[in-house]
Amino acid sequence: MKLHEYQSKRLFARYGIPIPDGDVATTPAEARQIAKRLGGPVVVKSQVLVGGRGKAGGIKLARTPDEAEALAEQILGMEIKGLPVRKVLVDQAADIQQEIYLGITVDRAARRPVMMASSEGGVEIEEVAKATPEKIVKVHVDPFLGLRDYQARQLALGIGLGREQFRPFSAIASGLYRTFVETDASLAEINPLVVQGDGSLLAVDGKIVLDDNALFRHPDLAEMRDLDEETEAEREARQAGLSYVSLDGEIGCMVNGAGLAMATMDLTKYYGGSPANFLDIGGGAKADKVAAALRIILSDPKVKAVLFNIFGGITRCDEVARGILTALEEVKPDVPMVARLVGTNEEEGRALLEASPYQLITASTLSEAAQKAVAAARGEV
Ligand code: GDP
Ligand code: MN
Questions:
Q1: Given the CA of residue 50, which atom of ligand 1 is nearest to it?
Q2: Which of 55, 91, 204 to mutate to test the pocket of ligand 1 (most atoms within 8 A of CB)?
Q3: Which of 36, 269, 306, 352 has its CA 20 to 30 A from that of 376?
Q4: Which atom of ligand 1 sits closest to the CA of residue 56?
Q5: Which pLDDT tens digit goes with each residue over 221-254?
Q6: Phi, then psi, of 361 in degrees rounded to 5
Q7: Which domains are present in the chain?
Q8: Each residue of 105-134: pLDDT tens digit?
Q9: Closest protein CA for atom 16 of ligand 1
């Protein structure tokens, strides 16, 4: 779950990271009020869960409350990368001398968090990593020791900060590390962290991605979810407890188990097709969960064929078949469907599908199922 900039920065502030004074507005009049309270120049910033808002025109500098109101009016009517802007953050403008990047994420290969800093802040870090990877300094953090002071100094030195900035920088780095750990985040990022004219540091942008699997430990953070930013399919998947990721292809896949889902997607590609989604219904899924999954798949207009790949262990094939049939009663599909059900109660499952009025193509191996699904998506059946 991604947090908005304003939410991320408020969390940062709890951990002692300096952020600009500011507030959120949903109307131009509110933006004006905030600008008036702050006095002096402000930035009006669209709050949408994508990067590159600046380049897209979603971040503007205003010198007066009048200007803030006019800009808020303009930005609140925008769509950025397909997302409508419903809120703007009105922040006291920073006096930017230099833009730094500071972020922390999990390095799976190293099996520990990695904190990264770069003198090339303000732009997306992926671009820096591509063009000038030597400009990113990294330290790995031992989770039992936490971020050590010498490591923060190493980062500060590595990006060429002056000695007088080491102490405030260390405080920010350790605040960011604590934010990351204590919120169970998978990413916490300040981009840019700016050096102001008077030499002080200020977190001007913030981004936090929380680990959904740990959200149950943070009811206060879970409440921050912006329902407007979720697609209908994502919402239904979350409520049904399904792992769902929408992709660009044309074959809708319903699989039980993450590894099996990956293998199914790979084989689909191997035979010349491309998956429309990753969808793991999990172990022991009952009919209602299967039905929700199928509804989600069929609501995607890109889907030209559906591929069910179920390995019955804890999950029973007859339950899955019942779920498929339940869903088919509701959503009348106009695309071909291929089913491969093996394992616990596979005969019962197959019998249920075969007795149904819907034309389901069956397969006994994964290769066969993938090939049939690719052919079906091309209209070759
Ligand atoms: P992003 O484009 O979505 O990453 O949004 P940011 O919050 O990082 O803003 C993009 C850019 O706008 C920053 O890199 C800055 O160059 C500029 N910017 C943001 N806030 C301020 C501010 O308070 N003052 C000034 N002068 N520029 C700002
Ligand atoms: Mn940014």
A1: 3
A2: 204
A3: 352
A4: 2
A5: 999 998 877 788 888 998 999 999 999 999 999 9
A6: -85, 130
A7: 21-92 (3.30.1490.20), 96-222 (3.30.470.20), 231-377 (3.40.50.261)
A8: 999 999 999 999 999 999 888 899 999 999
A9: 122
